[in-house]
Amino acid sequence: MIIIAATAIVCAVVGWCNAMTWKKREGLAVDSLKIVQAGSDKISDEVESIRIHCCIERAQLQQLTEVLNVFRDGVIVVNTHGEVMYANKSASSVLNVSSDEVSGRPISEIVHGDELVSKVIAAQGGIPDEGTVFEYEITSDSQSTIFEVRMHTVGNFADQTPTIVVQLRDMTHDREISQLKSDFVSKASHELRTPICSIAAYIEMLIDGDAEDDEAIQEYYSVISKETGRLQKMIDNLLDISRIEAGLMNIDRKYLDVGELVNRAVSNLNPQAQLKDTSIHVQLAEVNLSALVDGDMLYQVIVNLLSNAIKYTPNGGRITIDVDSDNLTKSLHFSITDTGLGISPDDIEKVFDKFYRIENYQHNAQGTGLGLNLCSHIIESLHNGQLGLESTLGKGSRFWFTVPIEGCGAKAAA
Ligand code: ADP
Q: What are the tens digits of pLDDT across the range 89-111?
């Protein structure tokens, strides 16, 4: 641009000088004025064209800057002298500098981390076409963030003008997810192995003829049957949880009288409660208790909470199930209260985690450690409700949950 402008100006001035000489020589004033006029027109055309080009370039640069600022990845551009030419918003916030302050500063002043600086400087000597990838960790306020760094060069090394583009991707969340996944796989395989080992051991004993009489044989069969049931339940629960987490669970909502679901669950579990001399009391408010819910899933939640109440309440206990409607939050409130073992404050949050079982209670009842996790998925993820727990160790627990009457809407606390 500058060259074009300079050429135009030079041409115009040369034209004007020539005109003046010619005028003197030939004395033709009118013609020379025409030439000057043409020269000055040419200047203004060129200046206008440069101005338009500059505007377009500025607009394009601005647009490019805005595009790079949208990226969640940090982008830093470094020139051949190791000076930062550009850093997008994300990179500036990672490096804790303002975008306007970075331009022209040496990379070593901006990036706190010898490793990254030395890699950028080394890249000026050349890097493969496909770029380089390495990890870089920043610790700030005793919290560390792991980045995947990708470096590419733009331009060529032959004319000594390569530009290095550094891309910073925050990997902390991905690392946490992969840690959660591997924890889950190791917990799941451990929990699945327990019933399988037990089944295998009892089958082996039957094959070896270890059972002395028919009674012992029956006992072995009953252990195998119980453990198979537990395995089946664990796999069913795991599949349901993963379907809900993946958003693949179909939910079939209908207006239902939930009082009917509660009565059905209680009559199915009463025999189990009676074996422990435990009574179950139903208190349904005398109002309309219909809501837009998936009946099978809500039934599963009621059965899970009631069966836990029976399992973790010593003989002779009392269980109450209440259902009421709240006009203010337009939701139904359920609560299942027992006079059982109770849960310590430390365990209250953990019991909703996958596979968590309170160690001391494992001899009280068999379980999978997945029931409460599935309940929270059904209530919170699928019904937009809430599930909670209040408990006093040694005295008993109250599990409560809410579901919106119209199937969605604001979450209602009990
Ligand atoms: P589980 O199949 O082991 O019962 P859950 O996910 O339903 O699995 O429950 C997780 C754990 O929470 C149980 O193992 C038990 O330790 C504790 N728990 C659940 N309900 C109660 C309750 N009503 N009283 C005391 N502890 C309970």
A: 998 888 888 877 888 898 888 88
Average pLDDT over residues 204-218: 93
What is the Å distance from ligand 1's center to 357 Cα? 6
pLDDT digits (tens, 9 = 90+) for 137-175: 887 777 788 899 999 888 765 666 678 899 999 998 888
As a whole number, mean pLDDT of residues 65-81 equals 87
- What does the block give as tokens for 209? 């003829």
Which of 397, 403, 383 shows the shortest CA–CA distance to 258?
403
Chain centroid to Cα 107, Å, comes to 32
Ligand 1 centroid to Cα of residue 303, in Å, is 13
C-alpha to C-alpha distance for 230 and 224, rounded to whole angstroms = 10
251 lines ligand 1 (CB under 6 A): no
User: What are the structural domains, with CATH classification, of the chain?
Assistant: 69-170 (3.30.450.20), 175-246 (1.10.287.130), 254-404 (3.30.565.10)
368 in ligand 1 pocket by Cβ < 6 Å? yes
- Residues with Cβ within 8 Å of 245's Cβ and at least 6 positions away in sequence, in order, are 377, 381
Task: Determine the residue of 372, 374, 377 to mutate for testing ligand 1's pocket, defined as the one with the most ligand atoms within 8 A of the Cβ atom.
Answer: 372
CA of 380 to the centre of ligand 1 (A): 18
